[in-house]
Amino acid sequence: MSWLALAFVVAACSATNDVPDLERRAQQINKSVMCPVCPGESIDQSQHPLAVQMRAAVDEKLGEGWSDAQVREFFVERYGPAVLLEPPAEGAHLVAWIVPPLGTALALAALYMVVRLMARPRSRPAEAADEMTAAERDEYVARIEAVLDGDSPRAREDAG
Amino acid sequence: MTAVPESSPWLVLVGLALVAIPLAAILYPFLRRRGLHGVLADAEPHEELDRRWDAALAGLRSAELERAIGTLGEEDYQVLREQYMTEAALVLRSLEMEAGREADLLARVEEEIRRVREGFLGGETDPGTEDRE
Amino acid sequence: MIVDAGSLALPIALLASAYASVGSLLGGWRGIPVLVLSARYGLYTVPILLTLSTAALVYAFVTHDFSVRYVAENSNLAMPAAYTWVAFYAGNAGSLLFIAFVFSIISVVAVRGLASALKHTAPFSTGLIALVLAFFLGIITFLANPLERLSFIPPDGQGINPLLVHFGMFIHPPMQMAGLISVALPFSIAMGALLAGRGGRDEWVDIGRTWGMISWLVLTIGLLLGSWWAYTILGWGGYWAWDPVENSALMPWLAMTAFVHSIMVQKRRGMFRMWNIVLVAVAFTLAEMGMFINRGGPVPSVHSFAQSAMGWLFLAFMGFTLLGSLAAFAWRMDTLRSREALDAMLSRESAFLAQNVLFLVVAFATLWGTIYPVFTQASADEIIVVGQPYFNRVNGPLLLAIVVLMGIGPLLPWRRASWQRVLKAVRVPLAVGAGTMVVLAVAGVHRPVALIAIGVVALAVAGIAHEWVRGTLSRHRKGESYPVAFARLLSGNRPRYGGYVVHLSISMLAVGAIASSFYEVQRDFSMEPGDTQTLGGYTFTYLGFGRSDHPDRSEVTARFAASAGGSDLGTMEARRSFYHDFRMSSTRAAIRSTPLEDFYIVPSEFAEDGRAVFRVYVNPLVWWMWAAGPLFVLGTLLALSPRRERAAAALRIPAAARLASA
User: Fold this and answer.
1) Which of B96, C171, C176, C403 is most deeply packed, by most CB within 10 A?
2) ipTM of the complex model
3) What is the pLDDT, as a whole number, of residue A1?
4) Which residues are CB-neighbours of C593 under 8 A, at least 6 positions away?
5) Closest residue of chain B to C644, computed from CA coordinates
6) Over 80: is that where the pLDDT of C369 sits?
């Protein structure tokens, strides 16, 4: 594990500085904008001419000093909200974002309630436990222990 | 349904042969009418006990392991061990009673058979049985 | 001739499985042994009949019988014979036949086991299994017969989908399909026990767990191979895109992961009886939805190779499953009371329950994101896309929570734990996790999310390692040498230690996923032959490209001389193939993979004058994700390997024990 962590450090430090900041921002935007003519693919993935054009547009706008949000907004205005690979976090589409955390919270609350309910001591059905005399029980326990010892180290060594 | 270009007589034969496969399998139990005993029989009563035995022993083992590893305190371990042991002892006793009943039943059936046979043979004892006993 | 015979076998197999379903359920319900036996024997003949159909389709492919529509649509004369296997399931009809064939075989294996182990439950389970089989055979017979003839014989076929021409395609789709359909087995076993009124006895648990884990294992292999295929052939440098079809394969996997955990509680404690049945019903419903989305579902996807209207039949069957399970559950709920109560709120049992909840929540969030676009389109006629960024943001934290639980949960003892003990036990893994974060932060990892994620994985691994060390030490103290003590520790409680091995493999997977999603380096290079560039310590020279023409495709192969840190890596080749008939191109990346990082070149454009644009990635630690696969299989097999205690042993030793105790 420590080796893995070490590898992680090396990997993390080795390459990230090779890519200019602007380009990295462009990549982030490319990955969140969909290519309008190739369903399900981002403009980062797609090799469609339109995607290539849109990538160039991202580079250009960022070069002109636009912010990431402005660039995304630019595409939304031209192609509609479906051009983004995530629903807008505003208006009716807030629902898309709220439901999962809300569901998580409700589920965890339900979990807590259920565990509490289940953990309430219940009267166990009176099984024949009381009918067993102490001597009887001791005998059974001895036999069970013999079975348990069957795979304990000591028993194995005795046998081997 | 299935596009067959021309229905050659061979194909009809093949079709009949194919139908014969499941038909034979399906009809076999109806015709034979034997070996049906045990198709729907209840699970052996001691299977339920066996499962509880498995669970109790696994519990004892994991409690021991968890104590050794250190995630289970000594006090909790003793409580758990007590509970699992009681469960295992109860199961063991039920199993023994079950076995005892079975042996009892078997003995009674044998007794019955012997009585019937003795009556049938008019008091003559079968030398073979005698030898074995 | 053999094609027509194979085609005839399909409706006969349908009748046989329909009879098996009705006969088995009726026989079980009314208690008619002869009917139950007859139905079971009828089911046994289905794989025989389907073997004939399968052989017929293979024969048609091998002999290039283009009068068979499916063969004409999915192969051509140029296709290498080895790809017959892939072409078999490349289209809708063939993949359905493949599913039915595989399912009929594993069903017979499962039903044989059931019939001897669970006499009361078996008729109901067998009936349900046969019902699922009959559904598939009905669709194949009436709507998608792969052996259907054309009215004319085309001179050549259309060929196989080029995206499928890859080694990974030999295993990934069949595994995925087999995995999805095999969820029907644990479902039928559990539901059969419920219908038989024996859900409250835990007799179905052992066999249900076995088939549940087999199904889960196959699903896992399918998912991993799918990612691997996406990584090496789709050529976008990633392995998981939260595409609807990927999601639909992931959701049943998540539900099954919950099931294989919580079934242990029923096995050990006779608890969660209702819950386990709910879980497996949810898993099967999600598996059906997976098959539905794959076959003409409403969500656009790169995987929807088999679009057709029959998707809606799958939806109907899914609804039937769900409602039927609910009805059965309501009817038999009273039989499902737990044998025991929860002793304490803090215990292994409650950790399992928390794990279940988290997995179901991830499945629910994934489902929500997958179908949200369908909602918006239906309700507001607005097209919305829910893609990778959404899922990363929504599921990311939940997955991290799961990893935390994976580290802590196994440290809780069964039945009862005290806070002090748990805190004491958690101390070491917590310290390791925190220490890892500090070391990484000092070493230069500055993104907080990446730091937390890696710290959490370190915690989980340390939890396992700590357990193993303590366990081995305790056996060593009793006089075993370290290797023996370790081996006996692992083999002494296989479900537990198999589980730990699986957890280790998940940690490897997590490390790879975290590292490559936060620290992937990507850059586009426009190069002329002879140009040299560097990225992330790799230096590569573009040597030029060569064209080659094949009957079905033309290929451009770019060659590179690469080196890293002064050591020569030799020549690397990246390929782009254009398939004329499909007007489709596929890419084979040049990948140099080491445990540390992958150096990955994808060609994106070639110009006539020799210039080309390449996308180059340095992906850290991706190797570990693929290495996790074999470890996962190993751990699952270890957890599955049976160990039965039989009480007979205790019955046989009374005399000896009495002596000993005297």
Assistant:
1) C176
2) 0.84
3) 54
4) C599, C622, C623
5) B54
6) yes
- Cα–Cα distance, A77 to A70 (Å, whole number): 10
Joined together, the tokens standing for residue C304 give 């929807």
- A96 Cα to chain C: minimum distance (Å): 7
Give the torsion through C-alpha atoms of A132, A134, A140, A146, to 10 deg. 160
Cβ neighbours for C385, distance < 8 A, ≥ 6 positions apart: A34, A40, A82, A83, A84, A85, A86, A87, C373
For B93, which of A140, A147, A148 is closest by C-beta distance? A140
Contacts of C485 by beta carbon, 8 Å cutoff, 6+ apart: A153, C472, C473, C475, C476
Nearest CB to A143 within list C302, C344, C653 = C653
User: Residue C44 CB: number of other CB atoms within 10 A?
Assistant: 19
Name residue B16's beta-bridge partners.
Answer: none
**Chain C residues near residue B13 by CB distance under 8 angstroms:** none
Which residues of chain B lie closer than 8 angstroms to C493, CB-CB? 58, 61-62, 65
Other CB atoms within 10 A of residue A3 CB: 8
Two tokens, residue C255: 């539900």
Q: What is the per-residue pLDDT across C287-324, written as a single tens digit (0 to 9) for each?
A: 998 888 776 544 544 444 445 567 778 888 999 999 99
Q: What is the structure's pLDDT at A12?
A: 58
Indicate the SS3 state at residue C50: helix
Q: Are C75 and C289 in contact (CB under 8 A)?
A: no
Q: Tell which phi-psi region holds residue C233, choosing left (phi > 0), alpha (psi between -120 and 50) or beta.
A: alpha
The sign one gets for the Cα dihedral C432, C436, C437, C442 is positive
DSSP code per residue over C526-546: EE-TT-EEEETTEEEEEEEEE
pLDDT at C302: 46
Q: Do C216 and C260 touch, CB atoms closer than 8 A?
A: yes
A-chain CB neighbours of C444 within 8 Å are 9, 12-13
Q: Are C76 and C36 within 8 A, CB to CB?
A: no
C198: left (phi over 0), alpha (psi -120 to 50) or beta: alpha
Compute CA distances C477 → A1, B68, C85, C480, C499, whole Å: 26, 10, 55, 7, 25
Of chain B residues 11-50, which have a CB less than 8 A from chain C? 11, 14-15, 18-19, 21-22, 25-30, 33, 35-43, 46-50
C218-248 per-residue burial string, b: 16 or more CB within 10 A, e: under 16: bbbbbbbbbbbbbbbbbbbbbbbbbbbbbbb
Q: Is C386 on the interface with A (CB under 8 A)?
A: yes
Supply the pTM of this predicted model: 0.90
The residue type found at C525 is: F
Nearest Cα neighbor of C118 from A37, B38, A136 is B38
Select from C48, C115, C328, C85 the least CA-distant residue to B41. Answer: C115
Among all chains, which residue has been given the structure tokens 């002329």? Answer: C528
Distance CA C565, CA C618 (A): 14
Indicate the range of B38-42, C66-70, C219-223, C655-659 predicted with least confidence: C655-659
Query: Is the model's pLDDT at C253 over the cut of 90?
Result: yes
Contact C555, C548 (CB under 8 A): yes
Pull the structure tokens for residue C105.
Answer: 């075989």
